[in-house]
Design brief:
Elements lengths: L5 E6 L17 H14 L7 E6 L11 E4 L3 E3 L7 H9 L22
Parallel strand pairs: 1-2
Antiparallel strand pairs: 1-3, 3-4
Length: about 110
């Protein structure tokens, strides 16, 4: 197996319907993970550039779907299918998608969700 430059950990945790904080899977993260895999493969980048991996809960349910980019330590939140190509472009260019990067305040669970 080739060592990749980046690993994309997409939370695919699913909580029961009606849970106040929700879950990434309920917000479409499983499709997002599949799209990352497909697009990287289509673009010929899955061998060396990046490997999408599914993960369990990253404790950011309210900001999901969440994608953690390693080794950089970038945490993207509220990621949509339309963001997939932009994320891959940023990886190729050694950049990050600033509008998706979670801010410090995003790491605090909103009071109404607890």
């Amino acid at each position: 197996m080739a060592r990749r430059q980046h690993y994309l950990f997409t939370c695919v945790n699913r909580r029961p319907d009606g849970t106040p904080k929700g879950s990434c899977a309920a917000r479409g993260s499983e499709d997002l993970h599949d799209a990352l895999k497909a697009r990287l493969k289509e673009r010929g980048l899955s061998g060396a550039l990046a490997r999408p991996c599914s993960s369990s809960c990253q404790d950011l349910c309210w900001a999901g779907p969440v994608v953690f980019v390693a080794p950089e330590g970038i945490v993207y939140g509220r990621v949509a299918l339309d963001d997939v190509d932009e994320i891959i472009d940023a990886l190729e260019n050694g950049e990050r998608v600033e509008r998706l990067v979670l801010q410090e305040s995003d790491f605090v669970e909103p009071r109404e969700r607890k």
